[in-house]
């Protein structure tokens, strides 16, 4: 999906070649994943050039991220604190991300006070 979001419509071969050569999956592996994404209505075929079908994303990056985060939080019983605590403890948040998180928390606090 990342390649489709960044490069735009692509064939299965183009998607496969977007992987680093040392980690490149087999063509049939990429094909299987793309067909499954098509079945789930995450991508669609836009055209056919010779024997190659070209696919484009139907789901935005933002929408996919929100859905995955919601599913992750659901795995923790709807509690996001363990996830946030892990990100902080593991050092996976950059100082800029911490500043953005503080800013978002201040905005939420202001909204709560005004209601």
Descriptive report:
There is one protein chain. The chain has 115 residues and is of the alpha+beta class. It folds into two domains: 2-57, Winged helix-like DNA-binding domain superfamily/Winged helix DNA-binding domain (Arc Repressor Mutant, subunit A), CATH 1.10.10; 61-114. The chain is built from six helices and three strands. The chain has helices at 2-7, 12-17, 27-39, 61-75, 81-89, 95-114, and strands at 10-11, 43-49, 52-57. The protein has a three-stranded antiparallel sheet. The longest helix is centred in the C-terminal third of the chain and has 20 residues, at 95-114. It is elongated. The mean pLDDT is 93.
Give a quick rundown of the structure:
60% of the residues lie in helices and 13% in strands.
């Amino acid at each position: 999906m990342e390649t489709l979001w960044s490069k735009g419509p692509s064939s299965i071969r183009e998607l496969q070649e977007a992987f680093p050569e040392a980690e490149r999956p087999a063509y049939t592996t990429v094909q299987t994943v793309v067909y499954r994404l098509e079945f789930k209505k995450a991508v669609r075929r836009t055209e056919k050039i010779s024997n190659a079908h070209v696919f484009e994303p139907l789901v935005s990056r933002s929408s996919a991220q929100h859905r995955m985060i919601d599913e992750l939080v659901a795995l923790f019983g709807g509690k996001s604190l363990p996830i946030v605590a892990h990100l902080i403890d593991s050092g996976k948040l950059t100082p800029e991300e911490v500043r953005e998180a503080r800013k978002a928390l201040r905005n939420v606090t202001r909204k709560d006070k005004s209601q």
